Each structure stands twice: as structure tokens, then as C-alpha cells.
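Item description
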Amino acid sequence: MTAGSRTAPLPVRPARADDPEEVSRIYGICLRTAALGGDATGLVDDPRLLGDVFAGPYLAHAPDLAWVLARDEGGASRPVGYILAAEDTAAFERELDRAWWPRIRARVAGRSVEPGGPDAWLCACARVTAHGDGADHGEQRPRGGVGGAVGDERAAWARCAG
């Protein structure tokens, strides 16, 4: 690109939440931007858990408010960014507690993680508690981020118990 030239803007379109390849691409974008905007590849033991915490819930439970910034690659529209939202956060979180997090907890049950590390932080986000039941035992979901400081040390557990 030369000085003063511009590339065409990329279109925004609804995400195809029912397309496993598109969901995988969105999860990949999540991984490559999770370390404070940088690539978190190699920072977490379970890269899929990033998408399960930050993208999957919206794709599965608020697909009408999921969009992608797409680039044409050989005639196919491929996501290069995403926009995810929930209309009613409280109702959305109740729905996730009922239908999303139990499935994620079952997937990571029994996995050992490094205390205070990114995987412990992600397990805490999914409410995979030391009790293993996902119930609120007075823990709080963590603040902070992968690759950054974990803001709530009480929420980082040494084990994703099942």
C-alpha cells in the first residue's frame, strides 16, 4: 500500500453461529487477541477455553447480536474480527448459568491448572470452583485478563474440579 492509498472497508455481517468452521475462526481470533490485544497462543494450556469463556456464550445464546468483520478470501467471507453482545446481561448470565457453564465445567472437570495462571483465571471465569459444582460459594468472578494481572486472586483456583 502506498502513501495516500486506501484499502476497501471490510463488511460487517451476522456471524454464522451454526457453522462450526466460522465458530472455530472466531475462537481463533479470541486466542490471538486475548493477551491484552496480543496473541495468547502458548500462554494457556487449553486455548479452546478462551473461546468458551469470551465468544462461545454469545454465539450460542445471543446469536442475533453476534457479527463478524469479514474479508473475502477466494470467494468465501472469512471472519477477521467480531462484535458480540447480549441485550439483557442479567438474563443472559442466568441463561449461561443454566445451559452454558455446566457443559464447559464438564469439559474441563478434573484438570489441574497452575495456581494464579491464565488457565486458573479462565476456569474461575467459567465458575469452575474448588467445589466443582459451579454454585456461588461466595467466590467472585475474576477481573483482569489473560497475560495481564489477575485482579481477584480469590477466584484463581489450583484445580478445575469436576
Observations:
- The helical segments are 20-33, 47-54, 56-61, 89-108, 118-125.
- The two ends are 52 Å apart (CA to CA).
